[in-house]
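Researcher: Let's do a round of design. I'm pasting the structure tokens now; please hold your answer until I've finished.
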């Protein structure tokens, strides 16, 4: 009974550690984001379209958020005019692949036209959300059409000086408005938000290279971090090099995995130790089965000798004594399960997984003890009794 209690507590601890390891990814999510090489920028960069597509297709990436930076105006701009942020009535527009890519849209101040919602930002239709300040300033309402001339933004020469390239004039439907809260003051103050899928279609039609300006995601299968990082290296993402020169290209990856690795390492060490001990426990149980059975049955040699002298075969004696031992061991095992239930929560599957192997190994030790006990001279024992 005590052995079964010990085994149940041991394997319950192992099961708990395995469940903790499985639950760690949900309890400690690993977030990752793309930066420039020295890690100083997480937005306002040029991230190649191939990298975005590779992240989107990766089995290690979930909840991918990325944005593309644009500028827009309602009036035509002369081709010979020098363009800067002051040339546009809407100098900061964002394309997003989902509403979560621009956290401001997750607040309660975002209002959508009836029949639309955040999912429309994941489509390829010419729609937009506009900041309430601009909506009122332009004298428009949700549901109206907005005529805009769009310009994409690049950073030639790897410096912070923006260069604007005309994409074309488009009519978009205003499906909602948003108003950043005071707590959003550190977030980029986008004026208009478009579905990035629609923008990418425009870039493709105009044969213009698409660049995202920010990207972040959640790592799934975090227990395979080495494989994940190897895949990220293959698609062109490097670790942050703080001594590198300033650049506007998004080529490095920051993975916030330190807390997860520390927690997972501790749990894995516990699991490894328990698995290393397991063979010794099985061996000890078998030896206990042999030693205890041998000592308990040692006093029954005279009884066995009398049975043999009365014509009971050695095989029948073996089976009878083995059956008696099996009844005792099974009763002790069930008592051990009942005692363990008072200490920890043990389910039926775990009880069977412990009791059945224990019973088999213990009975094997008992069988060996009975075989060794059966090797004696019946006449010599009977003479000693006389």
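Researcher: That's everything. Go ahead.
Model: Designed sequence:
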């Amino acid at each position: 009974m005590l052995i079964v209690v010990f085994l149940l507590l041991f394997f319950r601890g192992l099961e708990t550690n395995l469940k903790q390891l499985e639950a760690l990814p949900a309890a400690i999510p690993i977030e990752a984001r793309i930066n420039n090489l020295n890690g100083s920028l997480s937005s306002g960069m040029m991230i190649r379209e191939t990298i975005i597509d590779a992240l989107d297709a990766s089995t290690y990436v979930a909840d991918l958020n990325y944005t593309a930076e644009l500028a827009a105006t309602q009036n035509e701009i002369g081709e010979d005019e020098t363009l800067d942020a002051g040339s546009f009535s809407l100098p900061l527009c964002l394309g997003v692949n989902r509403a979560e890519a621009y956290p401001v849209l997750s607040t309660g101040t975002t209002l959508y036209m009836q029949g639309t919602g955040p999912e429309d930002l994941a489509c390829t239709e010419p729609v937009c959300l506009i900041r309430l300040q601009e909506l009122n300033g332009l004298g428009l309402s949700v549901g109206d059409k907005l005529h805009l001339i769009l310009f994409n933004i690049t950073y030639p020469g790897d410096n912070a000086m923006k260069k604007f390239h005309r994409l074309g004039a488009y009519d978009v439907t205003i499906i909602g408005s948003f108003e950043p809260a005071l707590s959003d003051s550190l977030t980029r103050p986008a004026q208009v938000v478009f579905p990035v899928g629609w923008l990418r279609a425009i870039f493709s039609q105009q044969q213009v290279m698409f660049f995202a300006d920010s990207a972040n995601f959640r790592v799934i299968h975090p227990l395979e971090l080495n494989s994940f990082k190897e895949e990220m290296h293959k698609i062109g993402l490097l670790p942050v090099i703080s001594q590198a020169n300033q650049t506007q290209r998004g080529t490095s990856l920051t993975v916030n995995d330190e807390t997860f690795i520390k927690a997972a390492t501790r749990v894995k060490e516990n699991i490894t130790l328990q698995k290393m001990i397991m063979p010794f426990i099985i061996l000890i149980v078998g030896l206990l089965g042999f030693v205890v059975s041998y000592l308990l049955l040692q006093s029954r040699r005279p009884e066995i000798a009398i049975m043999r002298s009365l014509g009971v075969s050695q095989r029948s004696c073996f089976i009878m004594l083995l059956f008696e031992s099996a009844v005792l061991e099974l009763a002790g095992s069930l008592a051990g399960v009942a005692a363990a239930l008072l200490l920890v929560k043990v389910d039926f599957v775990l009880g069977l997984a412990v009791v059945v192997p224990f019973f088999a190994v213990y009975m094997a030790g008992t069988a060996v003890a009975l075989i060794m006990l059966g090797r004696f001279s019946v006449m010599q024992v009977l003479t000693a009794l006389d």
